[in-house]
Specification:
Blueprint (H helix, E strand, L loop, with lengths): L1 H34 L8 E7 L9 H4 L3 H8 L4 E9 L3 E6 L3 E7 L2 E2 L19 E7 H15 L6 H4 L3 E7 L4 E12 L5 E2 L2 H8 L4 H4 L6 E6 L5 H10 L1 E3 L1 H45 L1 H9 L4 H36 L18 H25 L2
Parallel strand pairs: 6-8
Antiparallel strand pairs: 1-10, 1-11, 2-5, 2-10, 3-4, 3-7, 6-9, 7-8
Length: 384
Amino acid sequence: MKNFSKSVFLYLGLMLAFALVLSCIQLYVNANALFGRKSSDANYWITMSKAITPDNIGRKELIGFNDSDIKDLKTWKEVKDIFPVVSNDFKVSADGGDFIPFYTDMYLEAVDKDAIDVADLSEFKVRDNVLPIIISREYLNLYNYGFALNQGLPQITEDFAKKIEVNINLTLKKEKLKYTGKLVGFSDRIHSVLVPKEFLDSINSTQDFNKAHKNIYTRVLVKVNDASDQNLISRMKSKGYESNQESLRSAKIKGKLFLVLQTIAFIGGFIFLLCIFIIINFIKMQFLEQQEAVSIKYALGYSPRKMVSAISRFFSINVGIVLLICLGLLSVGQYYLGTSDISNGLLPIYISVYLWPLVIIIPLAVYVVVNLLIYKWLIKSWRF
């Protein structure tokens, strides 16, 4: 009865250890699915700008990024790529013509296509006086949920928005140009009104105002491995650079979450090692309690290695069974989590495939370690 109680507590401890470690591994996978994987292939996008101060306010040459700033950013080990954001150096307005009676001043920006998170950019070219535009999806949300509801205006879907055409008026130094603006996509990465870079560069080059601001970029879109990297954040602070805080905030949440998971996994690993220590001592106690029977078996020709191997195999099989039960329970939990409304389709419904090989690896490791340590103890202590 005493040995039975010890065995129950031992396997409960193993189950707790496996539950902690396996759950942390799966939560790590889930966190990567939600926030993005932290690796050399990971991409975080942040928009950098210079902080506005009384010294640089209204002075584009001071508040913008010049060639020297861009060159310096490229030397940062935390930065993977840089995409300067070009802004218009002329007046821009939009109106709805006879169809939609509205008028507004606006702005235009452009960035390399490689930085735009729109899958199909085949229509993102100026053709027949039609100016393609990509806007932030947040702008449409602001209209639908902030402006339209309060003003009694109709809400519009993304597909319908792409069918609306407006007049884009450019007031240049020597002439006025009018284009038909057509929405071709929505960006979740860039909060702006984007037009093709080749088009905006060509228009800017005709303005004398642009000569004083040549190669001056008000913002830069930066691709980094990890937006929560403290070295990156401290460098930005020392340079007086600012960024969209929401990207940094989500990255910080991910970093803190991983720290908590690592701590819990460490506790689980410690409990597992403690259980292995208990298993070894449990086997030693069994040999000591049955010293006479073991001696008789040895006298009859039983090999000490085979005796140790048999009892080590018994425990390693039991460890495998406990591990399999934990994986089964974790699979059920992950399935319900992945199919729940909370996950919003972002989480996998199955646990990571890399967890299943542990059913073989861990019991095998337990068998090898326990068998080796017990055999050495047995030979040394009993002097066969």
